[in-house]
Amino acid sequence: TGDKRETAIEIGYSTNVLTPKMHVTEIAEGPEEGVKILIASEFMKLVKQGRLEEYQKSSLVEKKPSCFTKYCSEPLGRFCRRISRSTRLFYYSKVKPFCRKYIFCCFFETSESVYDENAIQGVKDEERAEEQKIDPVVRRRNVRERAERIIHEYLGLPEAMASGAQSTVSPKSPSEQKEVSLSNIITSGTGQVRNVFKRASTARSSMQSLRKSSSMGMSPSDLRSLALSSMTENDIKMRESALHTLDERDEEEDDEFHDDMTTPLIKSDFLSTESMKITSSFDASARTILEKTFATDQTTRHGKLNKHTKKPVKQSTGMTLTSEPSDVTDDFQDESLRQGDTSKSQMALVIEGAALGHLLGDDVLEEMIFAVASSCDSVIACRVSPKQKALLVRLVRNYVNPTPVTLAIGDGANDVGMIQEAHIGVGISGLEGQQAVNSSDFAIAQFRFLRDLLLIHGRWNFIRMSKVVLYSFYKNAVATALLYVFQPFCAFSGTILIDQMLTAGFNFFLFFPIVLLGIFDRDLDKDYVRRNPEVYSSSRRNEHMTGRLASRWLFAFIFHTLTIFFLNYAPLSAAGMQTSAFDGLMSGANKNRPGDGEGGGYYVFGTLICNSLILTMTYKVIYETKSIIIGYPPACTCKKDVGEGFINRLAYTWVGVTYGSVAPYIIFVFVYQVCY
Predict the structure, then answer these.
(1) Cis previous bond, 634, omega within 30
(2) pLDDT at position 278
(3) What is the pLDDT of residue 192?
(4) Which of 261, 422, 436, 641 has the maximal Cβ count within 10 Å?
(5) Cα 169-175-176 angle, rounded to 5 deg
(6) Is the pLDDT of residue 335 over 60?
(7) For residues 97, 101, 106 and 112, what is the CA-based torsion angle, rounded to 10 degrees?
């Protein structure tokens, strides 16, 4: 946001981005060294608390790669990537400009427009990133060493003390430590009531007391004067109290910081990953074979439902456990650990753009601030420039593994860089103009519409598109595989099983059912999604387009191909509807009846298989549809006051299957038979 820090915090509390019980860390504008010290100390505190396990010493042990990886796979991967970059660079810099300049010259006005500068720069950026790429473990170790070095320089401790060695250099005195002011960090622990809540409670109590004392009630002028006087008096008291508190804090700040930071640095008692392990409360052996094999939901497949809970856990807790999304730990800690563990409380970070400017641009410091921010439940960056907004989005894209799909939303021209940097940009059309809308992928009128755009329409459309893509590959694969299955029965002569006219209209006959599924299908109702927003996690985990789900469609493709062919071939192979050449001359014929045994030929046989294919594909669409639209019959009526109009009364599912697929196919086959 571009607001000042105090305003941004108040907006955060009013929108529930910040909560009263949340531990808030504020980093305001200050000297560069002071900002780095604050970030380093916050980073090391999170490491000690176990929030950043990947930066603990037990996780920073570099594993030696195998000989195959070191001398074979890695060099081969680098070689393939280099060939790919060289090929693309030659195409964008030589081939494409030549075609634009001499073949499609009428579409390009100047010679400068023939070069695709963005594509060329993208290839060069990939090459630069390849050269600067280092091992993740080494990168994280550099971040931790940099944080320890910053704190050691501030405290005057030698770096050797991190490994437990005794120091002969005395720490800096409090007067020397105050040279780098730490007054630009303000922490609010759990249970503290911030000033924004005190103002509201003071005004409320004043109004209640006046209402009790006044029998005639309050006039608008009395209410206005009360608000002004109460605010002025309250502000004076709050300012005096705050100044007194800051004076006392300045006297004790250095000693507290020294005591808090020397302990973990000298004793090196950081929590290890092994100490954070806890016993799982779910029994994986309770899963059924169907859950292990076919479940696409990770919670079901990994055995973390209520029915998978271990009996001792149920007896000790006295209730049935409810599984949580994958982002929340599914294991249950010991009760004593939960009561004494303050490191798992909610945290928030509020940082100003001036302080952020001291950190951005340095790869190590960027990862350090991102590690601190990623451990917080809420992050507010205030007074940031448009470039800093874009850099914050780039931090997420660079330091989250695997690379996530990022979304940025803004309403003004200063948000354009952030919107363009993210994978998906959402612009809000408002009082600040249309620059953000013109640069975005989606445009909405109000910020509150983002919830429906993501949780409802975004989720619905992702599931629909997943089904449409998988179904498109599936139906064409079945139609093609039938030709291969037929070849052993025609001496591999390449004979076409289905008539060419029917093959040409195959996708047309199956067009409407899948299109209507892609438009109207809904697996969950809108109100249910609003009440249970956690269902969005299945889309974020890409559960609707996974290899496990694709293997289901692959199995269905093989099964349906063999079923369609052999269920038609078995009854029709010898006794009728095929030539006698399949099972010997005139097989199954009656000698007393000349011509008996020969049917309509393999064209009729292929047409019957095509009939089965069309019916199977339409059935598959109905089977995959989660919400069958039956409409309000009759859709066409002359009655008045029937409610919805004609368009909204149609039974789109059955209209698409019958009038859009099966009926056109039957009519086409009949007309084609008569005309042919």
Answers:
(1) yes
(2) 33
(3) 56
(4) 436
(5) 45
(6) no
(7) 70
